[in-house]
Design brief:
By secondary structure, the chain is an all-alpha fold. It has helices spanning 34-41, 51-65, 77-82, 91-102, 125-133, 139-151, 162-169, 171-176, 178-182, 192-202, 210-227, 235-242, 252-260, 275-296, and strands at residues 5-8, 15-18.
Length: 297
């Protein structure tokens, strides 16, 4: 591409500069992983780690997990995790990973399943939930484990365990583990009463930050949207809360209500909306519902 000049600058600094095009392979913010991208998009080969070194590392870490006292070898967790091929884990690696996740002495696990969320083993379900149920779990690790819950195979949480029920029953912990709230949809229509119970408990709750409340409400909205007609019994309750003067339910809940059985033509909008704006909003809801239905197939 030849050089070209274009206007640049703001306010009093306006002038001309050399135009540029920015090239990038993926999203640039937050999820950018330069090493992963270099290995996947170029001919660079991943450095080979001597097999004996990895075996020794694994054995030392495994032995440390099996001892009750605090050992320096427990700090090998992050190093061992970095050696794993997440798409081809064998049973012994998954078993050791389960022990590491469950062990409250291990906190350096934020890179578990790094960039490989589509291949999470459901066998890690119980240790992940046990660690999330522990109030002492550090927030960065809690965020990571929460994302793993969200990415587990469809239907994983159709039948809840005792720990999962305890986690959902703890209002503070479920605000920090919103993925399990959303995964209630795995249970089908039978999950509707519990979703309504959480909605009623959290929707107008005072004394919590708007972010914490909105995160739970977003998870509930996604669950109701996914359930669609299976959650029709909850529609009157959702409509009532949506119409409340202090309701924090946003426009996404209109999509959930339509999926649950409410005709688009009967959706209510603020009186300040003109007739043309109402038509536009209903058309937008129809498009969002179509995308949601396509995503469920």
């Amino acid at each position: 591409m030849p050089l070209y000049a274009l206007p640049l600058g703001q306010w009093l600094d306006k002038g001309f500069g050399i135009g540029r095009s920015y090239l990038h392979t993926d999203e640039r913010l937050f999820v950018f992983k330069p090493i992963d991208i270099l290995l996947s998009r170029t001919t660079l080969a991943e450095p080979e780690v001597p097999a004996a070194g990895v075996t020794d590392l694994r054995e030392r870490f495994s032995a440390a997990l099996g001892r009750p006292e605090r050992s320096a070898d427990l700090d090998l967790a992050a190093t061992w995790v970095a050696t794993l091929d997440w798409r081809n884990l064998d049973r012994s690696d998954i078993d050791l990973l389960a022990l590491a996740i469950r062990d409250s002495r291990i906190t350096a696990l934020e890179r578990v399943y790094n960039s490989s969320e589509k291949s999470i083993s459901p066998r890690l379900r119980e240790p992940i939930i046990a660690r999330l149920l522990d109030p002492a779990t550090p927030q960065p690790l809690r965020w990571r484990l929460n994302s793993l819950v969200q990415a587990m195979p469809s239907g994983t949480f159709a039948d809840l365990t005792t720990d999962e029920r305890a986690l959902l029953g703890n209002q503070q912990l479920r605000r920090e583990t919103t993925a399990l709230v959303e995964r209630l949809a795995d249970g089908g229509a039978a999950a509707t009463p519990q979703l309504v119970e959480i909605l009623k408990a959290d929707v107008l709750k005072t004394g919590v930050t708007a972010i914490d409340r909105d995160n739970v409400l977003a998870a509930l909205c996604r669950a109701f949207t996914q359930l669609g007609p299976d959650a029709s019994a909850a529609l009157p309750e959702v409509e009532s809360l949506f119409s409340h003067p202090r309701s924090p339910l946003n426009n996404d809940w209109r999509v959930a209500m339509v999926r649950m059985g409410k005709p688009v033509e009967e959706l209510r909008f603020p009186p300040r909306f003109s007739a043309e704006e109402v038509v536009q909003e209903r058309d937008m809801v129809r498009r969002m519902v179509a995308r949601a239905e396509a995503g469920n197939k």
